[in-house]
Amino acid sequence: MRYVSTRDVTGAPGKRFSDILLEGLSADGGLYLPETYPQVSAEQLDAWRTLLAEEGYAALAFEIVSLYIDDIPAEDLRGIVQRAYEPSKFLDPAVVPVTQLSDGLWLAHLSNGPSVAFKDMAMQLLGELFAYELARRGETITIVGATSGDTGSSAMYALQGKPGVKVFMLSPAGRMTPFQQAQMFSIDDPAIVNIAVEGVFDDCQDIVKAINADADFKAKHRIGAVNSINWARLLAQVVYYFAAYLQMVPSVPEPGAPDEGGPRPVEGRISFAVPSGNFGNIAAGHIARQMGLPIHRLILATNENNVLEEFFRTGVYRVRGGAETLATSSPSMDISKASNFERFVFDLLGRDAARVRELFEDRLGTDGEFDLSGTDEFRGQVERFGFVSGTSTHQDRLEQIRRVHEADGVIIDPHTADGVKVALDSGVEGPIVVLETALPVKFAETIVEAIGVTPPRPERFDGIEDLPRHVVQVPNSAHAVRAIIDES
Predict the structure, then answer these.
(1) 119: annotated active-site residue
(2) Is 88 buried (19+), middle (13-18) or exposed (0-12) by CB count in 10 A?
(3) CA distance 23 to 481
(4) What is the mean pLDDT of each run of 10 residues along the chain (488 residues)?
(5) Pick from 223, 185, 273, 164: nearest CA to 22
(6) How far is the C-alpha of 244 from the C-alpha of 267, rounded, in Å?
(7) Which residue among 15, 119, 166, 220 is the active-site one?
């Protein structure tokens, strides 16, 4: 399996997985994708259903990631995956359990990991892969990442104590919840440096990209990435789509079976509603669908920062500046420049790297937007790829949190509430799985506003807000961040 950049117009041979793992962002500014997506048969799905039931999530994850990684010996890779998804690390030994709400929607619970957010599902694997590959090469790496709230703590929990790894994590100053800040800033480790940037998440993300684009600086410090620009993170996220599907399929009636009040499948397929800001979570669903997983629709849910919803509704992709990026009660989606969107556009345009380069370098750089509304690709391909989109507001979040709690006794976080709202409004028929994103304790203020109840927290987080904070604040400047890295 080889990997190509979304902007590579040279036709050069693709790279191996272990090389792009450490490289992160391609030198040409593009994102890596496999040359082709492996295809999964119905027979494989049947076998994997049994495997998941009998041997657990790690066994399924190995089968899927091994389709994409052929330069790590199979037994070594199996050990990496087993360490990443050791059930004792997760609040539920199923790792990704699936439950049903009384409104007919299903929840895939992705927040059982160490930082109680769905980012753990990728970061735990990424941390083990980094540790393995660096040891194999006898090298070190400097991780420079950006977070809107959850990536940071997930990365730190996954990479803390890993030999040869130093982490510089950028976050928008004052834009995360107190719990999210405490999770990150309470970590006292000289190999982990928190940097609060005076700006929004997109500014943090732009600084990370600028540092990656500085070839000399990147080489000097051996800069790598943990954001979803790193293909390994996206690959790890593909697994939970398969896991949710394999758990659900035996639980829904066959087409034509009597309706007993449960959801009815659409030609044996199910749909996923995905809260999305940076397009990584739902991009993994797109890849799973391209592999042959029977996904009917991918329902993209945004908050008031609806850049992605606007594109799927109109064909226009218009990035917003910091002044237009709203601070909302689902803050991890307060993003107006979705890094992973380029991967989807690459597939949308028939993998035409020259057109992708022109759109993302020239048009976005000059006009801050591009318009595909009049193209054959937008008119035909978006439907073919199964995307539906919608948006949600603060009041919508409060209403859905309140409704689900009253109906089912379940507390959902604000981002999951966005997914529930958009799923219910989507008009999509058949079973819909909403990807739950985080434990509600991360957003206690909004939960209290909605239902008047402080959400429970795992015992290990008691008193976390009272711990000393380890963070340095800097202006919105790549130069300032480079200086911190140089001095460390």
Answers:
(1) yes
(2) exposed
(3) 19
(4) 95 93 90 97 94 97 98 98 96 95 96 93 95 95 88 89 92 91 92 95 91 91 86 96 92 44 52 95 97 96 96 94 90 90 96 96 90 85 90 98 97 98 96 96 95 93 93 96 94
(5) 223
(6) 17
(7) 119
